[in-house]
User: Fold these one by one.
Assistant:
Number 1:
Amino acid sequence: MKSKQIAAERAVELIKDGMTVGLGTGSTAYWAIQKIGELVKGGLSVQAVATSDKSEQLARQLEIPIIAFTDIDELDLTIDGADELDPDLNLIKGGGGALFREKIVASASRELVIIADESKAVEHLGAFPLPVEIARFGAEMTMRRLRKLGCTLRLRGAGDMPFVTDNGNYIADCSFASIEDPGTLHDRINRIVGVVENGLFIGMANQAVIGYENGTVKLLKRSSNQI
């Protein structure tokens, strides 16, 4: 927990007065929202868009001003977690079930800053099952087509009660082992009718703040020649 908290708090230092900020979802983003709430109480002036109902509820409890996504053209900065990130800052996200909203908010942000503990930094993506948000109608057909891409697949949920996202969809967790070409896989998945979005975030993160249990942090930045 300490490593997540120090990464989150270091990333929050990038927020300046007057910014519009995207609030991520998950156990690491929780610490960022907590720190932003503390700064707001101390006088920081920001407006925020949350990537999930859970994050919005927490932000409101901390009196962080929430605005409707429809009321803005662009966000200055989004701080969010990741389930895995590689050296090129390609990501797997969606462990918390909010990948679709997270990707929409990230795509509308001038800068996406990823916060994570050291266990999330990997050489190749894929050890963490790739979440894919799928429409409930025709879900079985969609999952059969996903399996043809070479993954083993599990519909997220417990027993006969599938997990339902804030958007009313299902999550299929797809295990590909090692993902050697994240960009190609991203496109192949999204060409399947019934897929709403997948948890590969390719070329979207500008920098990452990695927290370590010894109290240190490591900053990673995407090079300018990466797409």
Number 2:
Amino acid sequence: MKVIQLMYPYQISSDKMEGPYSLAIGFFDGVHRGHQAVIEEAKKQAKDKNLKLAVMTFNPHPSIVLGQHKEQVFYITPLSQKLEILEELQVDTVFVVRFTSDFAKLSPQQFVDVFIRNLNIQHVTAGFDFTFGAMGSGTMKDLHEMSNGDYEVSIVEKQLQDSDKISSTRIRHALEKGDMELVRELLGRPYQIPGIVVHGDKRGRQIGFPTANVQEAEGTFIPANGVYAVRLQVQNEWHDGVCNVGYKPTFKKPDEKNLTIEVYIHNFDKNIYGEEVKVDWYKYLRGEQKFDGIESLKAQIELDKQHAMEYLSHC
């Protein structure tokens, strides 16, 4: 898969192009089942018209540039992870458009001229609610009317799960509640956090449950505090486990607010400090709680382990 970075007003030379293209366009945070429907339609058009399959996405999130968020923006799929998923979906080319102040000022017509017509795109597919150009003033109807026969347009209608729209916003709300089973249904796969194993306080090892402390990739959306059934990939192998997200109130003082992701890996005793890992999240087991002693904590962790292994045995 070829990844081509685009900026406005700068453009790339034509020798980097491998079109003509059938293009799926959108921000695609999460690459959830609604996004997958858009990409599948673009793939169908590519096959029918003998075109290359391309996806256009944007980076960073428009709200950062437009000043709608003062705090850090967290992604369901950071760009590197999004690209991995798009490659798995057999996309030929990904255009990553840098979202800047200048880009945000483009009129809908300018956007079409520069980022559709100039890229040798012959078919464009997007969701029914996709907008483009300054202040999102361009609609899918406009995209079709501006084509002048240079490209065709397909509109993918609203995708539903349990009568509600599949959306990145809905997934974020589910993550905030720890509802990983709903997240998995909406994504079409388990929610995943990439990271690196770092040194922790090693308390888990002291009580007989050694854990891997995972430093999540920057900008990753962390689910609600609590205990989860998870799978962790390290050195290209997947392992069942139990993950605690939170502040470890049994050991920490109330004013120590250092959020940690700790994974107990079932039947695993390797030293994996510094290893890149991926954590797939399957089920919320319970909330984080403070225990009155080590023995009660150990008993609960053993129960958590049993519940997680039972659940994961059916996944």
